Amino acid sequence: EAGVTQSPTHLIKTRGQQATLRCSPISGHTSVYWYQQALGLGLQFLLWYDEGEERNRGNFPPRFSGRQFPNYSSELNVNALELEDSALYLCASSLQGGDVQPQHFGDGTRLSIL
Amino acid sequence: QKEVEQNSGPLSVPEGAIASLNCTYSDRGSQSFFWYRQYSGKSPELIMSIYSNGDKEDGRFTAQLNKASQYVSLLIRDSQPSDSATYLCAVNMLRSSYKLIFGSGTRLLVRP
């Protein structure tokens, strides 16, 4: 069974540009979560999508947005990139949203802002 | 007070010893608790999930939950150098609308 897949593996952008990160969940999983992990810091929750709807959002500015497609894949868009957006962006999926299902992570996209 | 707290470590144990990793959380209504292992530069890997008070064993790993004390721990028996990693405690918090809140992680070093 394929795990969570993310693309691209690495992404290099300059300040002010826009970045799009993609995620395909484990087959059968309907919930997708996005996290940011800056170097040396913990995982910060960004967004949760379930059944195509945004269910919850972390404390990030509106320039962080995303969507979930009918096939449950998801993309994260970051507009007006700033230097501090440099981080590992992790996508996770679970069988369903809510409180009991464990989340399984992809390998991440490392975003570098020059 | 942080929502999920872990000692950052490093926790250093000799090969073959028991490593004990601890985590406390602030939301008494939390129902789901997870331990992830993260090697440097890699993504977190789910090790254990626990939902009710008591112990849950899986191979060399035992998760322990005490909801009254708002405390969850992970024991690793017969520690191996390959267990050296950062261990993340994650709590699904009711009052945060089921956001999974991660602790900052404990770095474990297993000495050969």
Key phrases:
heterodimer; A: 114 residues; mainly beta; four-stranded antiparallel sheet; 0% helix; B: 112 residues; six-stranded mixed sheet; five-stranded antiparallel sheet; globular
Overview of this protein structure:
The complex is a heterodimer of chains A (114) and B (112). In chain A, β7 (64-68) and β8 (74-78) form a beta hairpin. With 114 residues, chain A is mostly beta strands. Helices cover 0% and strands 51% of the residues of chain A. In chain A, the strands form two sheets. In chain A, strands 2, 4, 5, 6, 9, 10 and 11 form a seven-stranded mixed beta sheet that branches. In chain A, strands 1-3-8-7 form a four-stranded antiparallel beta sheet, with no helix packed on it. Chain A is globular and about 35 Å long. Chain B is mostly beta strands and 112 residues long. Helices cover 0% and strands 55% of the residues of chain B. Chain B contains no helices and eleven strands. In chain B, strands 2, 4, 5, 9, 10 and 11 form a six-stranded mixed beta sheet that branches. Chain B has a five-stranded antiparallel beta sheet with strand order 1-3-8-7-6, with no helix packed on it. Chain B is globular, with a radius of gyration of 13 Å. The mean pLDDT of chain B is 93. Chains A and B meet through β5 and β10 of A and β4, β5, β9 and β10 of B.
